[in-house]
Each structure stands twice: as C-alpha cells, then as structure tokens.
C-alpha cells in the first residue's frame, strides 16, 4: 500500500481519464460546474459555428468533440452544434445533410458510460423535422475515437467542426525536468506548480506550448477547407505563471495540504509525494496566442479570457460539510485515477478524506475565492 511505482509519462496517456462510472465521485456526477460554464458560452460557440463554410448537403457534416470525457455535457454540446448547423442549411433553403459526431478521448476514458447516455438514433426514414421534434432521440451517427488529441486522430480534410472544452489545460506529460531531482525545475515539496519556482513553471509553460502546437498541427491536417474550431481551457489573468488562479486554489492549497498530512502522519514518504505532479497548466492569453500565430494555419476569430465562476456546485452554501464533500469529489473526479495509480486505492481514500475535512473547515472562504477563468478561442482554417 503506497508502494506503487511512479506513474511515468508513457503511462500517463494510458491511465489519464476523468473518474468513470456513475458513483458519487464520478465525473458524470461532478461536472455540473462545467455544464454551467459551457452554457454561459453557448453564444460564443454559435458565433464560431457561423464561420463554418457549409458544403454540399449530399456530403455528411462531421463534428468532433475532443476530450469528451464520460458525462452528458459532451452530448449536449454536440446537440447544440448540429441543431445550429441545421438551422443554417434551412435558412439557405437546403435540406440538411446527414451528420456524424465523433466523441474522442484517451483510451482509458469510460466510453461505456458515455455511450449509455446517448439517446437512441432517430429513424432516418422520416423527415429531419420529425427527427428534431422527437423527444430523446439524436439526429446524428455517433462513434468513439480513442487517442491523444496532441496527435492525428482523423483522415485528412474530413472534419467540419472541432470542439474541445475544459481539456487543453491537461498536458501530455509532466515535464521531465520537473520530476528530475538533479534539475533546478524539480518540484520538491509540491504536487502542483501553484507557488512553485520560476524554473518549474517555465518547464510547464514550455510543455503546454509544445502540446498546443502539436494539437493545432494535427487539426489543420484533419479539417475541411474553411472549417472552424471552438476551444475552451482553463486560463489565468495573472502574468505570473506561479499564480495558477482558480486551478491553484483547487490543487495547490487543500489538496496539497492533504498530501502533506499523509507525509506527516508517516503514511507516505516525502519522495512519494514529490514524485506526484498534476499535469495541468493554466495559460495566459499570450501563452496561447503565441502558439496559434507561430503555427499559422488558423485565423483567430475570437481569443479572450472569460470568468467561468466556481467549480463547486452546492445546494446549501451555508453547509460547510457539503462544501468540503463537493471539493473532495470535484478533485477526485478529475485527479482520482492518477492518485489511485500513484499511492493505491486505500491511501487515495485517506487523501480525499483529508481534502474533504480541510474543505469543510474553509467552506465559506472556498465559495468566495474559488473562481475559474477560461480561455475561449474561435479559430478558422486559413
């Protein structure tokens, strides 16, 4: 217990996923905040969809959600995209094309839970109007695509719209220098980069920009002419990369303290704690813009930072115990798989119990201060 090997960067891609299933700490039951934030940005998504060039309606229209995870949010946003495109075709006096929607995430994603949430396919023998009017049906063909979105996933010139929300802040790997004890970037004593050294945060920034460059290069090859992409990821307003904003408060305070508790109680070694790092980086607009401009394949329709609000959705804000429980479940739903792999299930349970306890003790402060910012990018293929 607690003697699991350190999760290597090669294993990270194989293991990383939001917590599957439908349990209390599952992503499916702890992604309400993402749903709220996504809904607040639907007008921006629709603006991006208006930039997509419509092709011959005899050719299927292809929509891809990258980093789909395993909850209903991805299904809801694909539904919004397709209905908006249908309205655009109809406004031009055309019958809409058939639609394909690809849900993509790493191979460890719980695709089974996701597919169970999909409504049944509408009967294509009836009119599109009847399909859309029918309750609890979908008007598109669905498929899952496992793989890292930092590499190619689709044939060249095959996709009309790419959508990705709350995923691009996840790095493809923890920078090697951050895990190297001999390096000045070694993140000693921490499990996240909030408050870390400039060397450590710079290594994370470089990794983020390398990953984003790979993402853009892959999408530019896969996208149809005049296709569009709508991207949302965690961002920050501070120019100081050691200040990771809401992500820092989520993973750099009570989550960090819970790891320190396990060390002080002798349940894990300092080395075990220091060898764990959350592979997340919240970029600035400039961090993001530099990569898009260097790639040169996309024109920027919109690039801005928006306030997303709190990641904690609670029914009774005055109930500190509920705040603590929601904090623990929120952290666990996105990082629990990595924690389990690093220290084992039993110690992972102990860790998140401590996160819950600390969150309960600071409930009011968390609700007041824990706010996320998001970078929103609408890009069109040049």
Automatic annotation (TrEMBL):
<dbReference type="GO" id="GO:0008757">
    <property type="term" value="F:S-adenosylmethionine-dependent methyltransferase activity"/>
</dbReference>
<dbReference type="InterPro" id="IPR042086">
    <property type="entry name" value="MeTrfase_capping"/>
</dbReference>
<dbReference type="Pfam" id="PF03492">
    <property type="entry name" value="Methyltransf_7"/>
</dbReference>
<keyword id="KW-0808">Transferase</keyword>
<protein>
    <submittedName>
        <fullName>Indole-3-acetate O-methyltransferase-like protein</fullName>
        <ecNumber>2.1.1.278</ecNumber>
    </submittedName>
</protein>
<keyword id="KW-0479">Metal-binding</keyword>
<dbReference type="InterPro" id="IPR029063">
    <property type="entry name" value="SAM-dependent_MTases_sf"/>
</dbReference>
<dbReference type="GO" id="GO:0046872">
    <property type="term" value="F:metal ion binding"/>
</dbReference>
<keyword id="KW-0489">Methyltransferase</keyword>
<dbReference type="InterPro" id="IPR005299">
    <property type="entry name" value="MeTrfase_7"/>
</dbReference>
<dbReference type="GO" id="GO:0103007">
    <property type="term" value="F:indole-3-acetate carboxyl methyltransferase activity"/>
</dbReference>
<keyword id="KW-0460">Magnesium</keyword>
<dbReference type="GO" id="GO:0032259">
    <property type="term" value="P:methylation"/>
</dbReference>
């Amino acid at each position: 217990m607690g003697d699991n090997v350190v999760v290597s960067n090669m294993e990270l891609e194989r293991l990383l996923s939001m917590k599957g299933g439908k349990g209390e700490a599952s992503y499916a039951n702890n992604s309400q905040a993402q749903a709220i934030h996504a809904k607040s940005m639907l007008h921006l998504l629709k603006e991006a969809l208006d930039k997509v060039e419509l092709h011959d309606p005899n050719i299927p229209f292809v929509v891809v959600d990258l980093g789909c995870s395993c909850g209903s949010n991805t299904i809801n946003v694909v539904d919004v995209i397709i209905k908006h495109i249908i309205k655009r075709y109809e406004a031009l006096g055309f019958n809409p094309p058939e639609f394909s929607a690809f849900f993509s995430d790493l191979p460890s994603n719980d695709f089974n839970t996701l597919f169970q949430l999909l409504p049944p396919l509408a009967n294509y023998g009836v009119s599109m109007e009847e399909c859309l009017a029918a309750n609890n049906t979908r008007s598109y063909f669905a498929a899952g695509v496992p793989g890292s979105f930092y590499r190619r996933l689709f044939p060249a010139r095959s996709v009309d719209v790419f959508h990705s929300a709350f995923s691009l802040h996840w790095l493809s790997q923890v920078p090697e220098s951050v895990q190297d004890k001999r390096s000045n970037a070694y993140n000693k004593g921490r499990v996240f980069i909030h408050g870390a050294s400039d060397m450590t945060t710079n290594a994370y920034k470089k990794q983020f920009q390398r990953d984003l460059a790979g993402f853009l290069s892959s999408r530019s090859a896969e996208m149809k002419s005049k296709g569009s992409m709508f991207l949302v990821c965690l961002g920050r307003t501070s120019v100081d990369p050691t200040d990771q904003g809401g992500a820092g408060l989520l993973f750099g305070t009570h989550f960090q303290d819970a790891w320190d508790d396990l060390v002080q109680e002798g349940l894990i070694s300092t080395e075990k704690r220091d060898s764990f790092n959350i592979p997340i980086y919240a970029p600035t607009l400039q961090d993001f813009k530099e990569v898009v401009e260097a790639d040169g394949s996309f024109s920027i329709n919109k690039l801005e930072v928006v306030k997303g609000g709190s990641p904690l959705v609670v029914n009774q804000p005055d109930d500190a115990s509920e705040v603590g429980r929601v904090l623990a479940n929120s952290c666990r739903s996105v990082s629990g798989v990595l924690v389990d792999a690093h220290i084992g299930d039993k110690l992972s349970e102990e860790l998140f119990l401590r996160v819950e306890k600390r969150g309960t003790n600071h409930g009011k402060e968390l609700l007041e201060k824990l706010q996320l910012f998001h970078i929103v990018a609408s890009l069109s293929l040049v």
